[in-house]
Design brief:
- Helices cover 48% and strands 15% of the residues.
- By secondary structure, it is an alpha/beta fold.
- It has a single domain (3-255), classed as TIM Barrel (Alpha-Beta Barrel), CATH 3.20.20.
- Strand 8, helix 10 (211-219) and strand 9 (224-227) form a beta-alpha-beta unit.
- The two termini are 21 Å apart.
């Protein structure tokens, strides 16, 4: 399913999107499939499947630890694409990874492997739009959205470039720093949403972990909320994981309706 189709479907229902992140292979590939099913059952509209990398610069300790566990359990790009292809949920799947892994596999092959596995979007936190032309072309050729990030310090010119190149949605980083749960939704989120003029859906991530925060972000003008560390923390606990991720997804989705 394409990301644009999901946003169209939600718009018709007057709903905003819940985008849920999990690190593929944490604690195992098989468990990830069950977790994705629980997330979708709980109300996740789009699932970001993190392809773990040994040096995840944009991620905080929670997701870094998940990446380490996944790599130690044998997750790699081949296993990742095989696992993604076996997920049969009626939601868009998005790959979030670092450019080193894409470069090693080859831009064209990576984009094609995504398309073949049913992944319809890619997020690469460490790839600026100015250096993304080759991957951008490969994604377009394979009908995969390439999603760029905008942060509170993204300048006007770079913002224009990112908005021009992004498709599916634009990933708005709510505050400076790395991913992780936070107790409040930064004022910078509201300011950055006010600055962005685009037809592409605006998705806000980094620091959202509960329904109240999700609601604040939606009220500030977001079309979607992205939640990762809160789900990954539940997975790390190893306790009643599927039921608890479904419950949290359900609570977050209420704020998106």
């Amino acid at each position: 399913m394409r990301i644009a189709d999901k946003f169209t479907e939600l718009k018709e229902k007057n709903e905003k999107a819940l985008i849920a992140y999990v690190c593929a292979g944490d604690p195992s590939a098989e468990a990830t499939k069950e977790i994705v099913h629980a997330l979708v059952k709980g109300g996740a509209d789009i699932v970001e499947l993190g392809l773990p990398f040994s040096d995840p610069v944009a991620d905080g300790p929670t997701i870094q630890a998940a990446s380490t566990r996944a790599l130690e359990a044998g997750m790699n790009p081949d296993v990742y694409f095989e696992m993604a292809a076996s997920i049969k949920e009626n939601v868009p799947l998005v790959c979030m990874t670092y450019y080193n892994l894409i470069y090693k596999r080859g831009n064209e092959k990576f984009a094609r492997d995504c398309a073949d596995a049913g992944i319809t979007g890619i997020i690469v936190p460490d790839l600026p739009a100015e250096e993304a032309e080759e991957l951008h072309v490969a994604c377009k050729k394979n009908s995969v959205d390439l999603i760029f990030l905008i942060t509170p310090v993204t300048t006007g010119k770079r913002m224009e470039k990112n908005l021009e190149k992004t498709s599916g949605f634009v990933y708005i980083v709510s505050r400076l720093g790395v991913t992780g749960e936070r107790v409040d939704v930064a004022e910078s989120t509201k300011n950055i949403l006010a600055r962005i003029d685009t037809e592409v859906p605006k998705a806000v991530g980094f620091g959202i972990s509960n329904g109240q925060q999700a609601l604040e972000v939606i009220k500030a003008g977001a079309d979607a909320v992205i939640v990762g560390s809160a789900f990954v923390s539940i997975i790390a606990s190893g306790e009643d994981v599927n039921r608890r991720v479904e419950k949290l997804a359900s609570e977050l989705k209420i704020s998106c309706r």
